[in-house]
Amino acid sequence: MNHLLSIEELSAEELIGLLDAAAELKAERGSHTRKPLAGQTWAMIFTKSSTRTRVSFEVGIRELGGSPMFLSKNDIQLGRGEPIIDTARVLGRMVHGAVIRTYAQQDIVDFSRYSGIPTINALTDDEHPCQILADLLTIREKLGGWEGKRIAWVGDGFSNMTISWMWAAKKLGFEFAVACPLQYAPTEAFLEKIDAPNISVTAHPAEAVTGAHVINTDVWLSMGQEDQAEKEAAFGPYQVNDELLADAATGHIVLHCLPAYRGKEITEETLEAHADTIFQQAENRLHAQKAVLAALAG
Ligand code: CP
Ligand code: NVA
Q1: Where does L-ornithine bind (predicted)?
Q2: Quick count: other Cβ atoms within 10 Å of Cβ 277?
């Protein structure tokens, strides 16, 4: 593994290897004898807001012995139009790795090629691989694994989160049931490309959630879509609430990558009833990303 650009590019073995390493790093947190990033500086280029990703990477890099360098787009010439391939060639000569949150997936692909240094996708419009690693770790901790489990997604059917989840379903084989307004569903072209019979799409949330062991949601409007009021208006029936969860499997868990908008994709009561899991999921970002950093540190 030279980069983490997507779940699409990971094999099942790599995914499971990262989760095993994350669990080990979590168990040994505090003792930290391994410092695979000793002497390294990692750039963190963010062109979108972040709480969890930024903090977990800064802490994770430090805990593994390295130094993080946070570069928001307005602090560097990228924000004034310097091409990503030039930014990549400069940083590639100075730092040891890069964590990038931005819009176009192609930008991080280009960065990885032109910089020649390990590059991690910290969220693009197409994928959020670090989040999915943390989510899978949480499912393993809470439910013992995903074998034989039904994982439902209620909300935007074709976002960075759903795309990464669908690739995880393809690689790991669990049932993944998406409920979304059909105009925001995975495209036919995508479904044909991924070719995964274990993925289903419905316009009816109750159908996806019935018998589900994991119920997952996210914001209706992803970063960069804040002004799309007509999109938001389509999601009214796609709220995760106690009524919707009535037919979920016994012992089900609710996941939300956060930030959450109460009263929109999830109710206050449902979020607070599942807060233990949801904030464990947020904490697991740190452990999962330390596993990625350690794997890429070389
Ligand atoms: N879930 C997630 O990526 O959170 P942030 O946007 O706060 O980093
Ligand atoms: N789909 C959301 C995820 C936020 C962590 C977004 O892109 O804004």
Answers
A1: 160, 218, 222-223
A2: 19
